[in-house]
Design a protein that fits this description.
With 743 residues, the protein is an all-alpha fold. Helices cover 46% and strands 1% of the residues. The chain has 21 helices and two strands. It comes from Aureobasidium melanogenum (Aureobasidium pullulans var. melanogenum).
Length: 743
């Protein structure tokens, strides 16, 4: 509203605009002042506010949603029951406007060109496949003429679509019958060629399976194995490989043909379970999830083995039997009321499933590798484990076949870190070099200070890498001196430089880990209520406990392998004593059974440094507690420690509470594998209860310093690779497994 001037005149609009000018926009200045809601003087290079408050003067252009964390959307593998209907509502919407429907031409009733996926589905299985047909429902509300025209067009299109669908169904049925006839003829021709080749004696013989007929494996319906077409696997319509071409791609072709014929005849696909239905399976799965899966997932943030894979195993009999075998095995170890027959049954069943799948080039390599890793864990817990290490090299070879390393995600990362972690613990015990060179793991060793919580597993992986490097350095200690004093001094200087690098890595790791990986509480022995000789160290997260045990173990080992100084040096002696006390303090007060596998090896190294009799007795009590709760076989530790401490004529520790037979374990046994490593005989029979006696050869300890012999042939590119006479190289396809989407 305008007011009259003094002389009664009303000012013109231009004059009013000139009087009330538009306020000038205030410039925002630096981003730091904007965040603090302050007026910025826009001084360069640092404004006055940032200079006074000693803050970083942030410059640049800030857009909305700059802090939004955009991640890839979750993906789910489509199943055969997955139905997709395409609805085009553009005509319906246009018909609601005057003249809108007239802008659309007459609908083309001709069927659209089928996609590659549709063509494949039609050739493989036409039952239950939804027909993607268009159903126009034009409802014109504007004019009666347009409504009548749309209705007539819809009726005409529907009639043509029905006729076309019937003709197409007949043609597809005829084509499917021809395809079946062609497949039968091709299989017959392959059988004749295989029989003729056998009479000539050239091709390799089929695997000699002396056990019973293998139970059917769900989800393999190949028409001809040399093809790379997708086949059904359980509830999924994809068969996965994360692998590359292999030099074994063309071997055992005749064996594949014979196997293809047999599987076409007697293969039956099991339905996917919704849940477990028997009390026995439920008990064994509960034990696995609550006891075994705990330490298997100690370095996995997603907890695949205890939280995700059990659900996926409902559709994978091979995976399910491996889980049940581990659960039953643990019950045998901790409760003498359970016999090992059930565990052996599930183990043999899972092994037969795995061997049968390894003959299929169109197999799901991720499921096979995961199953082999779990069966390897069973063998580590098993009685007479060293006589039955059938999957230790096979699991490593299948992991390499999938291309898994430190940069993998999901189930690949879980299997990789579990596998290399078990090897590192074994090498620490036997004083071996790690077979898989840590420099080939592909781990990120950026030790910049961690400012984000929740990434503790990444730092645990980095510490495991350092442990592996220290194990290699320790195993390569020279056993003799060089004849030339100059060469000896040069070698010692090189090793000292390597020692300094390992020590600097370890210190940098401890300085840059997040606060959540440091102790929450530290109580001196006189302040604890447990009357322990060791300090109480409280760490909250399981992976943090594992990482700290690794860290203190590295420091203890570094104090013992200094190239120039021995333990008589005060600095080295203090470092060994301080970190050995920390290891004993952590294991004496930890309540998490999921760290037992790492705690055993770390505590064994720390206990060797103890000199006080009361501390030594408490360590033996800690080992007895671990044995009682977890079933790990650690009787040999008592003998080794007492020899180290100089105890003479001491009574033996109380007998192990469960085992009807003498048992050993890869992580805890002083004797390595005596058979050719990683060789799995195909002439398998169901394993009976093991005998308590062992051969004299089983008592010989291997020489220290060698590369881990159990993984000497853990690669399918080697002539003596695992699973001889069974393994067939997979087809190099690129489709993903259902397990891939569980990451």
């Amino acid at each position: 509203m305008t007011t009259p001037t003094g002389n009664g005149d009303v000012p013109a609009p231009d004059a009013a605009a000139a009087v009330v000018s538009k306020p000038k926009r205030v410039r925002t200045g630096c981003l730091t002042c904007r965040e603090r809601h302050l007026k910025c003087d826009e001084g360069a290079p640092i404004c006055q506010n940032c200079r006074k408050s000693n803050r970083q003067c942030k410059r640049g252009l800030r857009l909305n949603f700059i802090d939004t964390n955009c991640q890839g959307p979750p993906q789910k593998a489509p199943t055969l029951e997955w139905k997709v209907d395409f609805m085009d509502e553009s005509r319906d919407i246009a018909s609601e406007y005057v003249g809108g429907l007239e802008k659309y031409g007459a609908k083309d009733a001709r069927p659209s060109r089928p996609s590659i996926v549709q063509a494949h589905l039609q050739t493989t299985d036409m039952t239950g496949m939804p027909m993607f047909e268009y159903n126009p429902a034009a409802v014109a509300h504007a004019h009666a003429q347009a409504q009548a025209q749309a209705h007539a067009q819809a009726q005409h299109a529907h009639a043509q679509a029905q006729a076309q669908a019937q003709a197409q169904a007949q043609a597809q049925a005829h084509a499917h019958a021809q395809a079946q006839a062609h497949a039968q003829a091709q299989a017959h021709a392959q059988a004749q060629a295989h029989a003729q080749a056998q009479t000539q004696g050239n091709p390799p013989s089929d695997p000699n399976m002396s056990y019973q007929a293998l139970p059917p494996i769900q989800g393999m319906l190949p028409e001809s194995y040399p093809s790379t077409d997708d086949h059904k696997y359980g509830a999924y319509n994809t068969s996965n490989h994360a692998t590359q071409d292999s030099p074994f791609s063309n071997q055992q072709r005749n064996s594949i043909s014979a196997y293809s014929q047999q599987q076409d005849q007697d293969d039956t696909t099991e339905g996917r379970r919704e849940f477990l239905t028997t009390q026995e399976e439920t008990l064994f799965m509960q034990v696995f999830v609550e006891e075994v899966g705990l330490w298997m997932d100690s370095m996995d943030p997603m907890k695949h083995f205890s939280r995700l894979l059990p659900f996926h195993s409902l559709g994978e009999p091979m995976l399910l039997n491996a889980f049940l075998a581990c659960g039953a095995r643990h019950l045998v170890l901790v409760n003498s009321a359970y016999s090992e027959e059930k565990a052996l049954h599930y183990y043999d069943t899972a092994t037969r499933y795995l061997l049968k799948n390894l003959q299929n080039p169109n197999r799901d390599t991720i499921v096979c590798a995961t199953t082999a890793v779990i069966l390897n864990v069973y063998e580590i817990m098993s009685e007479r484990a060293l006589q039955r290490m059938n999957h230790i090299a096979g699991a490593r070879a299948l992991i390499k076949e999938c291309g898994w390393n430190a940069r993998s995600q999901g189930i690949g990362a879980a299997c990789f870190w579990l596998n290399v972690g078990l090897e590192v613990l074994s090498c620490l015990h036997f004083n071996w070099q790690v077979a898989w060179d840590p420099d080939d793991w592909g781990i990120d060793m950026d030790f910049n200070r961690e400012i984000h919580n929740g990434r503790e597993e990444i730092w645990t992986h980095r510490m495991l890498y350092i442990v592996a490097k220290v194990a290699n350095f320790r195993a390569t200690i020279p056993r003799h001196q060089e004849p030339d004093q100059r060469d000896e001094e040069m070698r010692r200087q090189n090793r000292y430089a390597e020692w300094q690098k390992l020590k600097s890595w370890t210190d940098a790791w401890n300085d840059n880990i997040p606060r959540t990986m440091h102790p929450m509480a530290y109580l001196y022995p006189q302040h604890t209520s447990s009357k322990s000789c060791f300090p109480e160290v409280w760490l909250i997260k399981r992976t943090t406990i594992v990482a700290r045990l690794f860290y203190h173990t590295v420091m203890v080992l570094l104090s013992q392998i200094h190239p120039y100084f021995g333990l008589d040096n005060p600095e080295m002696h203090d470092m060994q004593h301080r970190h050995s006390q920390m290891i004993c303090g952590i294991t004496a007060h930890v309540k998490d059974r999921g760290v037992a596998s790492v705690a055993i090896r770390s505590l064994a190294h720390a206990a060797e440094c103890l000199t006080d009799r009361r501390e030594q007795e408490e360590v033996l009590q800690i080992f007895q507690k671990i044995n009682k709760e977890t079933g790990w076989r650690i009787a040999f530790v008592f003998k080794e420690l007492k020899e180290k401490w100089g105890w003479q004529d001491e009574p033996q520790p109380p007998p192990q509470p469960i085992a009807p037979v003498h048992s050993t374990s890869l992580l805890t046994s002083p004797v390595p594998l005596q058979q050719p490593y990683g060789q799995y005989s195909t002439n398998i029979t169901p394993v009976a209860a093991p005998a308590p006696t062992q051969t004299p050869a089983a008592s010989r300890r291997p020489p220290a310093g060698m590369v881990n012999p159990m993984f000497a042939n853990a690669d399918f590119t080697m002539p003596s690779h695992p699973y001889q006479n069974v393994y067939v190289a997979p087809n190099p396809v690129t489709n993903q497994s259902a397990l891939y989407y569980q990451a």
